[in-house]
Amino acid sequence: MIFHPRSHFLYAYGNQVWLSLDGGNTFKLIADFHGDIITKTYHSFYTSDITFVSQSGKVYLTKAGLSKYTKIGNVADKIFTLYYDHLGFIHKLTPDHFEAGRSISTLENSRSIFGQAPDMGFETALAPQYISLNEMLFFAYVPLNEPPETVHTKKFKNIHYGKLIRSRKTGTAYIRKILQHEIPTGFLSSVITEMIDPFGIEEVNESSCLSSSLYINQSGNFSYKLTLDPQNAKALFQDTDIEKTVVIPGHSSFLITSILDGKNALAIATMPNRVPNNVTFLKDSWFLYNFGQRNGRTWNIYSKPCNYWLQQSDDSTSLNIVKYVDLGNSQNLEVKIIPNTKGLRILETPLVEVLVGDPTLLEVKAKGIFDDADSYIMEISVVSRALRQGSTSLALVVWEAATECFVTTIVPTLKSSCSYLRAMRHIPSESIPVEDWIQGVHRDSQGFNMIKTLPVNYRPPSNMGIAIPLTDNFYHADPSQPIPRNLFHKSKVTGKYKQCANVSTREECNCTDAQKLSYAVAFSDCREKVPRFKFPVTQYPVSLKIFNESVLIPVKSPYLVTVTEVNLRKNWQLKHSVPVKIKKLKNYLEPLLHASVYNPLGLNLSIKGSELFHFRVSVVPGVTFCDLVEEFQIYVDDAPLPFPGHTLIAVAAAVVLGGLIFTAFMFQLRDIHPWSTFWKWMRTRMSAAYTCSHIVRT
């Protein structure tokens, strides 16, 4: 047993081949090789080709998911291996040589390796029976004395499904269905065909019996006697007429099995219930077809040329792509089947079979329509609704396509999980070009430089003060330079290099240009420049979008978020709208997450502190399979006196003013007038000074 690569198609093989389309729950018979045994299989993931090699060296081909197969040749080498390359071309490798297939046509691709495509006919006579103007039954004749062990060699098999019957004279028919039955006697199998080109009938110069009328009467349980007009001496049955078929429009056909004499022959009927017993048919009202094999088989069965082209409507160049479906999201697929059925009617039935490996993982809906050009368009929508991760294959099988087609099956892999391309991005209020980041200068309309170059070994302030950083994160790290703001013990025991750990210079940190422009805290050692804003920052819009395969999707409900400052700074505030539904989710999630939950739509940030703020925004769990996290930085400059200077001055002024007021109140309460006492003292001093100066002059 073997699974076709990256699909849920399971093949069990031996002297038969069975196919399971549901991963092994049920099987159906694809091929029966009787005494021959399949020993090796080879698979092409790109084109869905599957090659079977039997013990006798016969090589068979099928397509993943198809119920039909074909014979493509033989392998005579005792030691060999086959393999498909990344483009779906088959190659054969033996100890002394290498053979490669080069054509996109399945048969042409294998012809250079396995030889000319073989005739899949078998050695018996066929009896045609019209069932409509364009449809015909072919009955395979099995003689009554045929040994039981060889009966299967004279019957139609699954290998003939979807093939073409060709007459050596002229005419082609497409086999649409294989029938196995016990009656009528002598015919154990038949095929329903659709005529592409009309089959040629026998002429009088080939069978002189056609120049006579024909009388039919029953001669036994299942045989019938065909009698020519005895008055017509030129009309005779000959030995070459054995295994030819008498076709009478509107009645059963008759396969001639033996010649009694020149005027009489025995035949068996293809439809005994429609035999015109004891009826004479005039000349030119009955016809003779030759699908016998007494003098060499006059008919062949070959593979049908490709009858459908499969076209993908999206821009993907891969036939078996991988699609990620996040929780609550959907993926859409579309394929177009273009008919190439010359001379055949187009079936007004769905041409694509949609098969899901694990139907419980994802919700798959399919819709198919025919357009005005008879092309069939299949639209498929895949939705992930359950909080369950996993992977499954989705097979789109063009069940009516011939094995000759390069592509008949598309097997995209659907993953109910997070795509590695899916990420959340913060959209800044003003975009700064990369060139300006490199130069370190980007001025707004008022001439304010919006880029701040951080000091070497910079660490943001803590709640204890600007000069007391407590974070472990360095920015613009350089191990060869001194660390500023490193006077206090708490500052000395914190601060750890990441990219620059265990190196002595900044050059040895090996910071890339992308890391120097990254907002991620993991690359803070490399970050040199950050966005700069004037104090205070009010109502800064925190715009978040999800980047998914070059598509930006706004982050909105149910994608609620939490916001933290990675350096544990406090003087910032968020404002957001809280509708009723979001309020319920918010109240439910906050006790579980031990963090504030915000509505990302209309989220605004206000900052009352100074210097660098480094924020991390995370989507709450349970609404996505992805770990959606984004970081952004804001440097607040031109702030007033930093904490605690402004507060200390205000407190000191308040204490002094309060003391003065209290002193004045106490003086008033004790009836003390310091101002009057002061002026009295001043007058006394002035009088004393005047008296002294007068005495000195005298």
UniProtKB/TrEMBL annotation:
Tagged with keyword Transmembrane helix: yes
Transmembrane segments: 648-667
Entry superkingdom: Eukaryota
InterPro entries registered for this protein in UniProt: CATSPERB, CATSPERB_2nd, CATSPERB_C, CATSPERB_head, CATSPERB_Ig-like
Name under which the protein is recorded: Cation channel sperm associated auxiliary subunit beta
Source organism per UniProt: Oryctolagus cuniculus (Rabbit)
Keywords assigned: Membrane, Transmembrane, Transmembrane helix
The Cation channel sperm-associated auxiliary subunit beta 2nd domain, residue ranges: 1-100
GO cellular component, one term: cilium
Domain CATSPERB Ig-like intervals: 310-416
